[in-house]
Amino acid sequence: MKPTPGRRRKARAPRRVVRPRYLILAASLLVVCSVVAGYLVLGQNGDDASAASGSQDRSVERSSTKSRKEPAWDGTVKVLGDGSTSYTGPQKDQLRAVPLKPGEKPPQFVVFSWDGALEGDDRLFSHYRELAKEYDAHMTFFLTGIYLLPKAKKDLYLPPQHPPGSAAISYPTDEHIRTTLTQLAAAHQDGNEIGTHFNGHFCGAKGGGDWSVPEWKSEIDQFYDFVEKWKTNTGYQDLPALPFDIRKEIAGGRAPCLEGQPNLLKAMKSYGWRYDASSPGDFQIWPSKKDGIWDFPLQMLPYPGGKYQSLSMDFNFLYNQSEGEVEGDPAKYADWEQETVASYMSGFNRVYYGSRAPLFIGNHFEDWNGGIYMKAVDQVIENICGKKGVKCVSFKELADWLDVQKPETLQRMRGLDPAQSPDWSTVVK
């Protein structure tokens, strides 16, 4: 089926394989995890513990935190380059990151993130931006760079291991570039984060998993280029500059199909990024670092019926419910929607009343199975973002908070079972 112009490609059916304990599928994020029902007591990984608690790592962490502090802003907007971006001062309305006090229970952080960040005809970008405002939440919008590049200029994109101008997703319409620019500006002004979903969304053979460190750097450089030169590439001189310097704004991203993290981590260090959301899934435990970068994976959530757990993203529910078909049986839509809500809420309740590990929910702007996955996220936002002790934040805000905590406290929290509600005086000292 030919993709609708300016929209993400449809989910393609995953490969048929015998389902092992963990089934990892290479499609649009596509990881389905089967595990024994019930809560698992999770031990501390020795490498992670060492990285989190070592004095050398902490000194580097403090140094990098200090270097990230913005200089005093003189109040003058600085238009950059060809006028596509600008510096408007430190972002407003951000979470104040402070260390936990002895015995204090951590906030329940929840991060809603969106891959692609295109404002299409469905207006889902603006919908979730407005919903975030309504519930005093911040979200992370992972922008795909070619969503600011006109199809007529597609040969400007030189994807690693692929012909110029090729991509695994559709290029946007001219109108969708304009509406996306408007939403990006508004999202940043609302306090949300703009991250990167890179450019061509290549998966599998010759995708991110096959890319070298220099190839990942080329992909990153081109992402920056498309954002910093959208006025030159589109000719739109009637739109204002984006109200952020994209090189200051980007703190991390999510690789298409969760592929290629090892070389991506090596590549992103030279850009000063602080987190990566490209891990192919993990338990609901407190985050740790990989190679000095915060690792924010999708998480395994209890699935109704208790037979297995599913990763916290729309595609994985799609696979479980309609075997990857984006137009499944309409008679089952209502039940599937409530199954999705129940899984998200089970994952939330497990940590909210337990370890308080952050909950990560990642989705796309899509209409699969009648839009039930969007409706499910709507319900989850409404149900949890106003609860006592809950902070719905961006990945960047979470990284800020983690950076100021004592590493030994994080190490103890990381050893908690997701459902374990400890005596916090023995954890936060």
From TrEMBL:
Transmembrane segments: 21-42
SUPFAM superfamilies: Glycoside hydrolase/deacetylase
Keywords, comma-separated and alphabetical: Membrane, Transmembrane, Transmembrane helix
Residue numbers spanned by region Disordered: 47-92
Superkingdom: Bacteria
Gene3D superfamilies registered for this protein in UniProt: Glycoside hydrolase/deacetylase
GO biological process: carbohydrate metabolic process
InterPro entries with a match to the protein in the record: CE4, Glyco_hydro/deAcase_b/a-brl
Record field: compositional bias (Basic and acidic residues): 58-72
Protein name: Polysaccharide deacetylase
Organism expressing this protein natively: Streptomyces corynorhini
